[in-house]
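INTERNAL AUDIT FORM
Audit reference: QA-55
Scope: verify that the stored structure record matches its stored sequence.
Auditor: D.O.
Record contents follow.
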Amino acid sequence: MNTQEIYETIEAYLAGEMTDTEQQAFEAQMNADAELAKEVQLHADIAVTLQTQDKLKQKQHWQQLLSSQVLNPKQEQSEPTLLGKKNNWGGMTTYLLRIAAMLVLVVGAYFMWQQFSAPDLNKLAWQQWQETETIQQWSGIRGASTDDTDVEKASFKKSLQLYGDKQFEEALKGLDAVSTQSSMFPDVVLLQSMCLLQLQRNEEAIGKLTFLLQPQNDNLLKDQARWYLALAYLQNDQTALAHQELSKIVAEQSVHWDRASDLLKKLDSSK
């Protein structure tokens, strides 16, 4: 594809205009091509920036209107009556109308300010992570089989304990002892990604979580991995990719779909 075709494909992806098959194929391309993923995020960031600038202009417009009414009110000239006296009722009516107009402007400016004030998505993502990160799925060594060595099982159990003790760097080192051929390897990758998220090493965590979601990895941890991936994207300011993962969670009503639905609303309100 030439540059124009690539841009048109990215815009169709971000606008949700692709079929499910096209979307899956394009996401597979992004997972395999880091430069394409960066280009998609750049387009998403530009769209958000343009929307933000438009809201800022609206807010400034309301502020200018309010300022002109409050700080520079027009001096009304009261016309004399036939008796040569000041028409006090007319002056009072004008004054009340001015007050009413000012109140309308104040209320309008307040609602515009509320709309403009976007939620802190990084903070929201971290809060959701702290509330949902758990190692309860490993109450036993869920993924272990008779083919796994005692050393691998012991290393995994020790890493779980270290994670629970908040020794995330040490937990990562212990997981290196488990072979990629082990039946526990998907569990190892998820625990590694959780350690990385705790250490705020989001890029590395995203790589491991994306690996877990590949079609060939048919395991029981995908739902949890997708939720963690959406939060990692949010913490990494990759809002378009976070939106895609959250939408899938809601559509499939998988783990934490209610939380995903709430985050989607906040994401949409921040555009």
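Auditor finding: record pair retrieved intact. Confidence is low (pLDDT under 50) at residues 75-86, 113-118.
Action required: none
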